[in-house]
Amino acid sequence: MKSLHLWVVICCFLISHVISGQPISSTTENRYFRTISVDQGLSQSTVFVVQQDLQGFMWIGTQDGLNRYDGKTFTIFRPDKKYQHSLFSNYIRSLYTHKDGMLWIGGNKGVSCYNYKKEQFDNYPLTVKPGEWFVSGITAGRDNKLWVAANSGELYYYDDASNRFISFSYRVNGTPFNTIQQLLFINGFLYLATDKGVYQLDLTTKTAKAIQPVQINARINAMLQQGDLLWMGSENGGLLCLNLKNNQVVKYLHQPQAANSLIDNDIRSLAWDQTGNLWIGTFRGLSILDTRTTTFSNFEHQSNRHLTLSQNSVRCIFKDRQNGMWLGTFFGGSIIIIKMIFASIFLARPRVTYC
């Protein structure tokens, strides 16, 4: 029923556009953005992270609370000092769905794990150096061991025997870094996106070495792997593509006179869509890179038009199991991208329970 409700909403939306004479096209230039924000029940309009669990629910982490969305309504989770198993943090920066179905949540107090049977949270504090911090990354390796990073530079792994997160000490070969923005496993190594570029951490020798090309010695906010390629979104340094075999780097920058260039050099998030296009969330809007033609299609907020971006600062991008694209923005809520040919209403139905 939940998937049917969302499907009816999308169908009604598309039909209304056909009746009104607005074009519905499968081209990149015709994409429609539907905003889901506080008016629809979202706890707060700055969205840092979006994730889908194995049951199909969408989880949205904000500056004030965690939201579970079933396609119709929101359930909001916040800390409650009177209840031991309430959510640990209200400032949510990381979400991770493990292969075993568990949902892990990272915030400014530590890590939480959602217990589906009891509808409560198991909470795990982290030993972090003094100062403001938050959990900036959660991932698992081939052995399914869970790893967590704090933006202040610390690393932790989950120990099943003791049911706690243990600090992982490592040394750095190269310029010391201060922050970790993201974690990514590639070929058994843990890659760290930091304020000094990307580092490759060997978990056996406990040594992190800097990826050497000078072009990526900048703050890296996001990473994605594509075979032998590592795509990186930098802060004010544009989009970078590193060939992991030969160490060659291709750099994409905003060109003010070129309409089909990257929309902005300050990149916050990266994600692939179902067709292999790279979605790039920046401080000034959304770019979509066709990697075959190396051209960008750009989207930004337009106050005089409906169904555009609600806000230009795109903090996160997530592709759900039905290939819908979700964007989290700064004070703009969470956004669904609707891209569909009108005939598909009658010829296709969702293959996976949506939420």
Short description:
The protein is mainly beta and 355 residues long. Helix content is 6%, strand content 44%. The termini are close together.
What would your notes on this structure say?
By secondary structure, the protein is mostly beta strands. It has a domain at 1-75 and 264-355. Helix content is 6%, strand content 44%. The protein has 2 helices and 29 strands. The strands form 7 sheets. A 5-stranded mixed beta sheet has the order 14-18-17-16-15, with no helix packed on it. Strands 1-29-28-27 form a 4-stranded antiparallel beta sheet, with no helix packed on it. The longest helix has 18 residues, at 2-19.
Unreliable runs: 1-28, 340-355
Basic shape: globular
Gyration radius over CA? 20 Å
Which oligomerization state do the chains in this entry correspond to?
Answer: single chain
Distinctive features:
355 residues, mainly beta, 5-stranded mixed sheet, 4-stranded antiparallel sheet, 2 helices, globular, disordered N terminus, disordered C terminus
